[in-house]
Fold each of these.
Amino acid sequence: MTRFRESVRSLLREQVLDAAYRLVADDGWGGLRMAAIARAAGISRQTLYNEFGSKEAVGNALVQRELEGFLVGIQRELDAHRGELEAAAAAGVGYTLQQAVDNPLIKSVLLAARGGEDDLLAYLTTRPEPVFGTAMAMLDAYATEAWPDVDEESRGLAVEAIVRLTVSHIVQPVAPPEESARRIARITARIAYPGGRA
């Protein structure tokens, strides 16, 4: 019975997040109301509040779900270039930047921020969780295994640099994704191997 309840709750959460995703992608985050999410998800407002508690909690869960999808894709790109730090970094960053360009939710968040609405953007930039913490933990675990010849301090600095620079380029792109990815990868490699690779 407990497993059934957990399954129903998981389906409910996905239903709510799917509805919120569509609404934010279409109309932006600023005008989003819990009543609209409940209507779009086909549930009562009370059920929505019981599950999430607030619009901010919905936003946090929405960003976390998108991040998890990004991380799966990033892991795939990194694994395809295991042992080649700069190539792996370029592939992972390139994938992330291109997904950010193509993702309707992220496009909506960035357009809203440029118009002065930045509530949801804060999840990507000023709040340390979920984006920075989750991404850095995943990349640090990968880097520890894939780049064993990089010392711990350099590895930590390289991981932080790649995450922060990638988020910065998502929020304020200055070049096409491929070019930005190459530059970020080069910076990462120089941090990891300050004297050049032996």
Amino acid sequence: MLLLALDTATPAVTVALHDGDDVIASSSQVDARRHGELLLPAIDRVLAEAGLRLDAVTGVVVGIGPGPYTGLRVGLMTADTFGLALGVPVHGVCTLDGLAYAADLESPFVVATDARRKEVYWARYADSRTRLTEPAVDRPADIAGEVAGLPAVGAGALLYPDTFPRAHEPEHVSAAALARLAAERLAAGEELPAPRPLYLRRPDAQVPKNYKVVTPK
């Protein structure tokens, strides 16, 4: 097994290789505006670090969000393209699950990432491997009662200490954690979902309401 894992659902552009036993190479850079520019060089970098070629990859793992439309689709389109070119399966993993796995907590907690617009993408967990709620997007104040008293991880939690007073790192997802979680689930015989994006809301850029289509006569 050689899994190529990547995620662009948060400001982190993160890539890792997992050989079935553990992560053998990884790269993470935080830059919310350069996902498309940074992702392919990061993939080249981890392959070079591992001394392997792309055609050695037997499966692709990609974070499916939730996340902003533009950043998230960079990773998803790249994963789909590699899957088709290499003829290997592409597995989707919820980005919040990757953060939860990296948190390595064995009691209830919350994962919250920054959704912009003064909102967070979030979910509650029983432990680092067990999600209790579906991913959602809300204003922190609106979920204060649901998350009260719980530890929290993720950039969204760190941004809103009034709602998440027990927030701590990890701040962003890492492809290394995503790869370890996917490898663990695959080894247990679980079927990972297809890489369908969790956008949860419409993209920020939209066609103006009064936009007029002009056609040539």
Amino acid sequence: MTQSYEVIFENNRKWVESKLSQDADFFKKLTKAQTPEYLYIGSADSRVTAEEIMGARPGEVFVHRSIANVVNTLDMNSTAVIQYAVEHLKVKHIIVCGHYHCDGVKAAMAPQDFGLLNPWLRNIRDVYRLHQTELDAISNEDKRYDRLVELNVLEQCINVTKMACVQERYILEEYPVVHGWVFDLRTGKIIDLEIDFKKVLKDIQKIYNLTESDWMMSRKK
């Protein structure tokens, strides 16, 4: 094994020792059922780790990561994670977090063939198409990238809201609430895009309302 690989296990050993020195029952507690209040959907970028930027401890955040924090409803991975978090873990907040200097967003803006990545990046290109007038009016390329990052977060929040499990539980319990964040690599700060979830839900209801089934009506009663 290379030295860089071996150091991972050394770091793990030190981490275990550190946790046990602070709490001898740390790992016993960790085996208990998880009850996170947050589902974090973020980028797979190695520079952005959910628990670290949130200051969260193990068990507090359920995490899903993908290239450019895309929530594609044809992707069984993301849909399964969301449904499990909403129906079984009963999370109260779903956070979609993008980040500035996102390689996936930059790749989507490049006129280049990325092979197997093309279908995935097309989701972000679709975001550009939806907001082309606004984005093309931004002359500064870096600022245009930043704005596309924000708009991509907004559209992925809408994709989450389209899901039946999210709509149904919110109608019954007023949770979960969907939030859009951007992590700024330049400052280390989380920026809340202050998405009005109730308004988003109302705006898409006519087209994406999935709550009028007999099963849903019986639960209302």
Amino acid sequence: MHTLLVAANPDPGSLTHHVLGRLEAALQPGSVEIADLSEERFDPWFTPADRRAYHEGGNYPADVMAEHRRLERATDLVLVFPVYWWSMPALLKGWIDRVFVNGWAFEHSPASGLRPKLQHLTTHLLPIAGDDSGAYERHGYESALRTQIEHGIVDYCGSRRGRTAFIYESEQLSPEATVRGVDRAVRSISEAIQARLAG
């Protein structure tokens, strides 16, 4: 069992990074690796070389192959990110665009259709939302995010759906509520991963 925590927030003092540290500690003494995409300066730009690799199902750029190796070591993937416009930050979306590609995360052709390839991986989501859960429910924000990421990415690539644990009201003037939300989300994700380890 090996967990890869992937975070996308440019501010090292952010709540995202606090949650990342809490989650890493909660998963000890298990095997945990952190991919801080901002600190590592991952390039999210989808280039003509990426497009060619997508069509060919191979010949991936070196930085993409390095991410493939990290993910191939992992049994669990946790995406930790602030919610921007009902979705993930562009940096994290660019990571997925470039890394979860044809020939590696799935295979698709007109002749054979879709063949998902990430069955070895369980993907968990830890979105950090500025608004409260009531607003997310009223406006369908949570449903939209889950459909886009859980169904559109995780299911498409054949990864098992893990736990999705929102932290709400991250920008409200209620530190107690934020602490409770962080505790709940970290416990939910870590318990799901540790239960798989125990099983």
